[in-house]
Amino acid sequence: MNLKFLPEPLLAAIRCLNINYLTEIRIRRGQPVIIEYRGEYVYIDSFGVTASADRALRIYDVDGLFANALSDGLYAYAEQLRNAFVTLDGGVRVGVAGEYIISGGKVSAVRHITSLNIRIPHDISGCADKIYNVTQSGKLSSILIFSPPGLGKTTMLRELARKFSRKYNVLVVDERSEISAADCDGDGYDLGERSDVVRGGDKLTAFSSAIRAMKPRVIITDELYGQTDISAVKHAKECGITVCASTHVCDEEILSSMPFEYFCRLTGIGKEVIVYDKNFNIIGDSCCHDGDRSAFIV
Questions:
Q1: Does domain 129-295 have CATH number 3.40.50.300?
Q2: Nearest to 128 by CA among 297, 12, 284, 264
Q3: Fold of 8-119
Q4: How do the domains of the chain map onto residue ranges?
Q5: Mean pLDDT of the region 249-262
Q6: 248 membership: H or E segment, kind and range
Q7: What confidence tens digit (pLDDT) does each residue in 188-220 have?
Q8: 27's torsion region: left (phi>0), alpha (psi -120 to 50) or beta?
């Protein structure tokens, strides 16, 4: 995992934690560093979690820290920065706040950076066992995983890719390079022996091109939002392909209009997952646990 750009005092503090429970590091210039740990926002000092803001670590040169993170130079990340984030090697995603430069109604650059939201990826073997067993016990069925940000949707998709790829050709449409966490050489998480990864580009273009090129039986992708993304899923389904995806949308009425057979609600780090059918009826005894993170200490 690429966190080497962080200052040594913060790295040393992180080494005192079980990193499997660390999901975010929030750095605001001159303010206490706050982390999301075990599903709660807490301060961090030189020895790990602390209740005291006065003792918490503080970082003042946020611009310099961000520059250190861009190992390949600012130009290599220019396109991503238009969406106010970058994805570093290892799948670490860094959201950026500062002065947004607007051109043509879109962000063209970010400067005078004041805040960073560093999101930590995880790879937890077995976390999607029950989701897979509940939803795929008969024929192949499409799944939509939903929750607010930061509750483990991408981690679930990563594990589901491995499970599906034991039997089927899987195409991972990884728009932000987060599922595979691949570097510039394509090296990242193991997604299974029958998985192919397409990175970058919008979902509709990637779906239509890669379906012809790679002939997948299952497509896995993250963060569906808007009609264009839904059109991509519908196109895949019309081609007889099973889709497994995630979204931040939590409104059941909106979700039920989407082309999925099952919906899985994540309720928190290390907490139950609730599986629903197309009509949002809970599927039997389908409350699933997302895995024992304490067993995967790094």
A1: yes
A2: 264
A3: Beta-Lactamase (3.30.450)
A4: 8-119, 129-295
A5: 95
A6: none
A7: 889 999 999 998 778 988 898 989 899 999 999
A8: beta
